[in-house]
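chain below, 165 aa
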Amino acid sequence: MPHDGHHSHETPPDGWKHSGVRVIPGDNLDTNTAQTPGMNRAAAINAARVGAQKIWAGTVHIHPDAKTGAHHHGALESVIYVVKGRARMRWGERLEFVAEAGPGDFIYVPPYVPHQEINASTDETLECVLVRSDNEAVVVNLDIEPVERPEKVLWVDPIHKAPGG
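prediction:
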């Protein structure tokens, strides 16, 4: 279909100058968002800040040797991108599964999955970028006693098989 220059929506009066692309400086994030013990979340993109309709994005920092409480995010899907450090994720009804991710890795968390983020490093802060599938952060903190020895799950996709797999 040829592009004829017409948009499906009306051009706003400002010609998109202030209602178009927005840059959110990294030192201007909003920590007034839903929190879970053991981590610091900060919102960059949400309904209140930029008028986002369908996504939420921000950062997560977990201190060395720290872990979050068990929680889930309701009907939301979450994507975590590890910028720095080593993330250990535990999930399941008793947090019985575990996998790790490092810088450059993406983590996908489906709706309603009980999970816990753990900083696998004892001396380096875990820094991540977080994106969710709605404009408001939903966090349901859970009271789960984790199993002592979670089952190891190798973090691979269908193309990259685990060694020996």
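The longest strand covers residues 39-45. Confidence is low (pLDDT under 50) at residues 154-163.
thats it, cya
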